[in-house]
């Protein structure tokens, strides 16, 4: 059961990174450019996750 939940969380996070944060929008040609893009998307995702976890439960706005 724990593995199934973990898979759902990973898929949810990946979907959020692609659709909301622009992971799939990279159109460059270099490894360095791709690496920078993925790094920035990952940092943005971490920031959004931390904001979501530290927000009081009565706030309903989603990130």
UniProtKB/TrEMBL annotation:
It comes from Streptomyces zagrosensis. It comes from the Bacteria. InterPro entries: IS701-like, RNaseH-like_sf. PANTHER family: TRANSPOSASE. This is SRSO17 transposase. SUPFAM superfamilies: Ribonuclease H-like.
């Amino acid at each position: 059961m724990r593995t199934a939940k973990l898979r759902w969380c990973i898929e949810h996070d990946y979907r959020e990174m692609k659709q909301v944060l622009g992971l799939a929008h990279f159109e460059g040609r270099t490894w360095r450019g791709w690496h920078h893009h993925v790094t920035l998307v990952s940092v943005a995702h971490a920031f959004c996750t931390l904001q979501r976890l530290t927000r009081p439960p009565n706030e309903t706005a989603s990130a």
